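Q: Given only this backbone (409 positions), what sequence would you predict?
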């Protein structure tokens, strides 16, 4: 493979990977403007974010079997076309209910891009290069929260919030053209793969019964939902409580993303000396301490803009350590069902994120308290699940060892 071909493949796959994060983050600075134009509240606008999370949760489970049965490009074409039409619908909507519905549809379309990009790495590159390619795609995902809200803040201030969705629609069109003309299709469709609900659900149930999976998958999903609480609550917090404008909010969001991205990169260095179990344990304890301290300060009324940014930065750093290690541990027991396990884990994360974002949107009065309660509660509950789940894993190991010893005897 030539360097030019390699570059173009990475560029297209990176664009597919970035579509979802851009769709989540780019319109966040427009929450107050959307609320004003659609005659509603910023809290109600945040339900459109919850709707997007619901769409991604459904898409995680939908596209895996479709991409295996019909090949990569046909489901991807359909998903991108759905995304483009839904983006146009978001830009032209005149009601908050219409925006929420269109965001659900937009998410289902964008999910095709995310799932297909992961699958096509294995199709298009040698196995020995996969880790390198995934690292490059992860950098794209990590850069998106730094770029998208900053750009969205300037676009909203200059052209209005509708222009953000017009830009997202243009991104979808450009990616669709690139996929059609320059992305090769090397995977052959497997018509033996069943799309009937029963075999798919039985496969997921088999995965979910594994103690190591449900312990670390739920730990990861609950802890990661603290990030969703931050994403859902931060527009209200910064622009309505602290009265920053769209541009300043975009820069704050970009700065805070550095904590999450930086810690996830440092995590790779820590793994040379420590096990994932050790890192998860320490990071989750720290995340709980930061979350509970953040809540105590908020309830006491001592929060300022600077202290809020410090607490959020520390909390996001903890997630950067917790999430990748918990995710790796949850997938470790699987070889045959790794795809199903990955899809189920992604659906759990988005499902938890949806619940916590809906919780925050229930509060009509602008306040930091709902977001901080969500963040503190997520970290504390995740730690509890980890402690209980580890006991179950140890019991399973001991039973297996006793059974092996009896068999040998």
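A: Predicted residues:
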């Amino acid at each position: 493979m030539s360097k030019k071909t390699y570059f173009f493949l990475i560029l297209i796959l990176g664009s597919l990977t970035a579509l979802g994060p851009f769709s989540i983050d780019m319109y966040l600075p427009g929450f107050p403007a959307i609320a004003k134009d659609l005659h509603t509240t910023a809290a109600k606008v945040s339900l459109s974010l919850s709707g997007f999370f619901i769409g991604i949760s459904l898409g995680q489970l939908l596209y895996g079997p479709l991409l295996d049965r019909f090949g990569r490009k046909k489901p991807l074409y359909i998903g991108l076309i759905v995304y483009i039409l839904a983006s146009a619908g978001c830009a032209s909507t005149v009601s908050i209910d219409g925006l929420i519905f269109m965001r659900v549809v937009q998410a289902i379309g964008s999910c095709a891009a995310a799932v297909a990009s992961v699958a096509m790495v294995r199709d298009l590159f040698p196995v020995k290069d996969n880790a390198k390619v995934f690292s490059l795609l992860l950098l794209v995902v990590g850069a998106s929260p730094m770029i998208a809200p900053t750009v969205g803040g300037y676009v909203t201030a200059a052209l209005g919030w509708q222009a953000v969705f017009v830009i997202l629609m243009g991104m979808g069109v450009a990616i669709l053209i690139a996929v059609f003309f320059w992305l090769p299709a090397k995977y052959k469709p497997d018509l033996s793969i069943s799309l009937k609900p029963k075999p798919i659900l039985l496969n997921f149930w088999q995965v979910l019964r594994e103690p190591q999976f449900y312990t670390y998958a739920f730990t990861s999903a609950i802890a990661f939902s603290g990030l969703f609480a931050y994403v859902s609550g931060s527009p209200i917090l910064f622009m309505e409580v602290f009265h920053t404008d769209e541009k300043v909010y975009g820069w704050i969001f970009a700065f805070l993303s550095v904590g999450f991205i930086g810690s996830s990169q440092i995590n790779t260095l820590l793994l040379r000396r420590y096990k994932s179990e050790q890192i998860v344990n320490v990071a989750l304890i720290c995340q709980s301490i930061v979350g509970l301290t953040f809540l105590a300060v908020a309830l006491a009324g001592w929060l300022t803009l600077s202290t809020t940014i410090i607490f959020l930065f520390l909390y996001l750093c903890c997630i950067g350590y917790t999430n990748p290690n918990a995710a790796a541990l949850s997938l470790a027991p699987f070889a045959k069902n790794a795809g199903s396990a990955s899809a189920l884990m992604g659906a759990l994360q988005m499902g938890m994120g949806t619940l916590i974002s809906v919780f925050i949107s229930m509060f009509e009065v602008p306040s930091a308290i709902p977001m901080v309660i969500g963040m503190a509660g997520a970290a504390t509950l995740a730690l509890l699940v980890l402690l209980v789940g580890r006991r179950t894993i140890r019991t399973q190991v001991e039973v297996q060892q006793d059974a092996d010893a009896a068999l040998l005897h």
